[in-house]
């Protein structure tokens, strides 16, 4: 073991990003110590992870699951302390026993712990884009005030981060950057006839052609709300106006994003579509380390294609641009309405095309220009939007 191993908390360790993070960590055991692992419901998977990584703390969703996990761990002679609930998530994110936090809980549930890590001045590796979409300025102000290091895990934002000048990761447009080119795969329905979209099933929607991801983000990729959330995420991370963030469809997902400079240079970051690349980048930053990903074979890929997004096919992308333009709590409202609609689609309570319809109608009803003053106001708008979305779905 190296003299000062980085002590890591993985929030959402049983998810797609969480598992990839542990895969990278397992390749570099001498440099990292796992302080805490957390999961909502998949206790058996969390148990296996605790056996492998022996964290000091594990956090689960309910008291009943905490008891079950604790019993199983003790029977194996493992001393990991087990807690449950949101306060425990915030505690392991802010603990003096950890240096870096992988924020990989999906959706609004990840906001409070990610903010807690930022407030405590940690190295925050942010996968949970919804947290930044919801709280925007508040999150960035918190990072700046505490001196936290914010590193993007979303592959596009990690790519942009790598393509920006070292000294100008924020407000790069004041230093020669003309545009950010955010690439999008276009998801599974890029070329499906638009009039057949309403009949697609959850299984078809989550069958992403390039990336293996959690169910929610997979549906978001199919509607392109994912790219819309990423436009908002890029705006906050890099301090760039929406007018300088352009979405480019690139079905091969080999170029993870690009930065265009005023002299005509365009710098891109390429790699196989595997989240262990941005995860390894953030864990080792500013150094580099092996991620486990096979090297890119451009001759085998042969062709890279690009096209512009179609707002008729992907109305969620337009809704997200509009929400960012309106500002204030509107992105939080967009995010909450989308989470409710996506869950309803996954539960087969609404059709695919009703996702954008529900989000648009919630935005019409709840739109506000009031700004975000703190986490309580974010959560108030989040709850209001969820109530309206739920009642629209029941109609
Ligand atoms: P996932 O559904 O596979 O995993 C989510 C994790 O969050 C699980 O560990 C789950 O236990 C935990 N969780 C869910 N609800 C919770 C709650 N209420 N309280 C506490 N924990 C809870 O999701 P994922 O695909 O790993 O995505 C995680 C985040 O990373 C999302 O915000 C997503 O947008 C982002 N992201 C994912 C990918 C990817 O390739 N999967 C790429 C870019 C960004
Ligand atoms: Mg992404």
UniProtKB/TrEMBL annotation:
Keywords from the named record: Isoprene biosynthesis, Magnesium, Manganese, Metal-binding, NADP, Oxidoreductase
Reactions accelerated catalytically: 2-C-methyl-D-erythritol 4-phosphate + NADP(+) = 1-deoxy-D-xylulose 5-phosphate + NADPH + H(+)
Binding site for NADPH: 14-17, 41, 128, 130, 214
Domain of life: Bacteria
Ranges where the 1-deoxy-D-xylulose 5-phosphate reductoisomerase C-terminal domain occurs: 150-238
Residues that hold Mn(2+) according to the record: 154, 156, 230
Record-annotated 1-deoxy-D-xylulose 5-phosphate reductoisomerase N-terminal domain positions: 8-136
One Pfam family, short name: DXP_redisom_C
Residues the record lists as binding 1-deoxy-D-xylulose 5-phosphate: 129, 155-156, 185, 208, 221, 226-227, 230
Pathway field: Isoprenoid biosynthesis; isopentenyl diphosphate biosynthesis via DXP pathway; isopentenyl diphosphate from 1-deoxy-D-xylulose 5-phosphate: step 1/6
Keyword Magnesium tagged: yes
An MF annotation (GO) of this entry: 1-deoxy-D-xylulose-5-phosphate reductoisomerase activity
HAMAP family: DXP_reductoisom
Annotated protein name in UniProt: 1-deoxy-D-xylulose 5-phosphate reductoisomerase
């Amino acid at each position: 073991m190296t003299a000062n191993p980085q002590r890591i908390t993985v929030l959402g360790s049983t998810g797609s990003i969480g598992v990839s993070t542990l895969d990278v960590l397992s390749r570099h055991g001498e440099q990292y110590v796992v302080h805490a692992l957390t999961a909502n419901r998949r206790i058996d998977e969390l148990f296996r992870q605790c056996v492998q990584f022996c964290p000091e703390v594990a956090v689960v969703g309910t008291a009943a699951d905490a008891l079950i996990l604790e019993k199983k761990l003790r029977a194996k002679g493992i001393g990991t302390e087990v807690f449950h609930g949101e306060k425990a998530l915030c505690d392991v994110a802010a603990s003096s026993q950890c240096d870096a936090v992988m924020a990989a809980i999906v959706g609004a549930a990840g906001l409070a712990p990610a903010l807690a890590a930022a407030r405590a001045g940690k190295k925050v590796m942010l996968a949970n884009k919804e947290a930044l979409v919801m709280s925007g300025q508040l999150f960035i102000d918190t990072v700046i005030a505490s001196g936290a290091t914010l590193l993007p895990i979303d592959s596009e934002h990690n790519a942009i981060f790598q393509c920006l000048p070292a000294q100008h990761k924020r407000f790069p447009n004041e230093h020669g950057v003309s545009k950010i080119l955010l690439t999008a795969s276009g998801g599974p329905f890029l070329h499906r006839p638009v009039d057949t979209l309403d009949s697609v099933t959850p299984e078809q929607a989550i069958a992403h052609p390039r990336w293996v991801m959690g169910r929610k983000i997979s549906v978001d990729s199919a509607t392109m709300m994912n790219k819309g959330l990423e436009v908002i995420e890029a705006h906050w991370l890099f301090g760039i106006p929406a007018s300088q963030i352009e979405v480019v469809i690139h079905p091969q997902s080999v170029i993870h994003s690009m930065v265009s400079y005023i002299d005509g240079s365009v710098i891109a970051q390429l790699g196989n579509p595997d989240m262990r690349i941005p995860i390894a980048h953030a864990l080792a930053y500013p150094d580099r380390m092996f991620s486990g990903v096979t090297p890119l074979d451009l001759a085998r890929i042969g062709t890279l294609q690009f096209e512009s997004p179609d707002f008729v096919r992907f109305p969620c992308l337009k809704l997200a641009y509009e929400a960012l333009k309106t500002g204030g709590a509107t992105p939080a409202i967009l995010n909450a309405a989308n989470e409710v609609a996506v869950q309803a689609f996954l539960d087969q309570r609404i059709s695919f095309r009703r996702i954008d319809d529900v989000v648009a109608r919630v935005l019409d009803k709840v739109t506000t220009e009031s700004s975000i003053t703190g986490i309580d106001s974010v959560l108030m708008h989040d709850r209001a939007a969820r109530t309206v979305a739920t009642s629209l779905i029941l109609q």
